[in-house]
Amino acid sequence: MSRDSFDRELQEIKRNLFQVTGEVRKNLTASVRYLEKRDMQGASIIIESDEMINQKCLEIEEQCLNIIATQQPVATDLRLLFSILQISTEIERIGDYAKGIARISLKIGPGKLIKPLIDIPRMEEIAGQMLDDAIRAFAEDDEQAARTIPARDLQIDVLYNQVHRELITFIMEKPSSIEQTMMLDWVAHNLERVGERVINICERVIFTVTGVSVDLN
Amino acid sequence: METEVTRMQAEDYSLFYGQFKALNKINIKIPANRVTAFIGPSGCGKSTFLRSFNRMNDLIPSVTTTGTVYLDGKDVGKQDVVELRRKVGMVFQRPNPFPKSIFDNVAYGPRLHGTKNKSDLAVLVEKSLRRSALWDEVKDDLQKSGMSLSGGQQQRLCIARAIAVNPEVILMDEPASALDPVATLKIEELMNELKNKYTIAIVTHNMQQAGRVSDYTAFMLTDENRSGNLIEFGATKQIFTTPSDSRTEDYISGRFG
User: Fold this and answer.
1) B215 to chain A, minimum CA–CA distance in Å?
2) Per CATH, which fold does B6-97+169-252 belong to?
3) Contact B243/A75, CB-based, under 8 Å?
4) Which CATH number is A126's domain given?
């Protein structure tokens, strides 16, 4: 006996999760790039597309509830669905951080930035790569990868502190730049949060594979 | 499980129908005052094993066994079978009340074991019917035939009949499979109540039921010789979330075979 239709449904839910993760990943990179390039239109598109991302995450949630209600999954299947529910929430929040960066971009307006962005794009690069790897670990049930990815969050934290200190110096040197400085600090904060969300995803991967809840933070 | 008191135990227990080995060296400890569920595909020996606890298999001429089944540390094979079956009661898949009144159904066992006093019997019947959650529904007409009750009520009458002789263990072989969902729920609730006083072992094909009612779950499966083996035994929570054996996982998640 096999559970073909159940397995097909599970695969579809996973596919939907990977798809929405792809959208969020794209928005995350684009949000920082548009901030650098002062691309107002691009930032607006990110804000608009977040609505669709939220909708897709809700659909995943509904699919999970339906399959739990009708198919009574247990053991690995149940852990997988439970993890998908939580991971989709993390993805949705990462999408919100990207939208937040796009909003800041619009607030700053089309004018020049007070300084060229160096550490913020680096933060995004590391966080984005962590997200890619965490989702790959989830897709491949790679517990080992899920255990090693969180260490990279330290680099993001170091960069965040660096950005923070640099921006404070900026305020001291040029008090009129305070508004934009605060906003750029908020951008760095959003990227720092992405790292934490990715760690949560890694915890879910370990739970899916082993059934053990761990705290990797 | 280490902290549990063992009520029943099987040690290297094998059962043969003639030459055919139906159960292969089963080792298990059934904890006292808990519900233990036996799950597994048809023909894996769950019911046969359950019947070994009160020697119901003795009735089949070709059956021989090796190994030992214990009740409270004593070999059941060496006990008086009438006394053993008083201590280890049984409820079957189809409710099987005697064609007698509700009162007589419940009083049957105690009478057989020597309780003759009418008021003692009346007290026992009421206590048993209350414990089996049937009292409120039948108290006004205990002389009514047990056969006139609904399926769910009949099954609770059979449970009352089993507990009237003050057993230690109640064996239930798919006790709710012939009942509708509401009657099933009542039986399940009842098991939860009864385990405070008795040790319950249940065979069920309904995995969700095993998950709902039992504290421990035993998964059985036939090997290449079609003999029933105990594959995994553990806390129900563990079996249904993180089973250790991939065959258990395949079975409970419906991917067996």
Assistant:
1) 16
2) Rossmann fold (3.40.50)
3) yes
4) 1.20.58.220
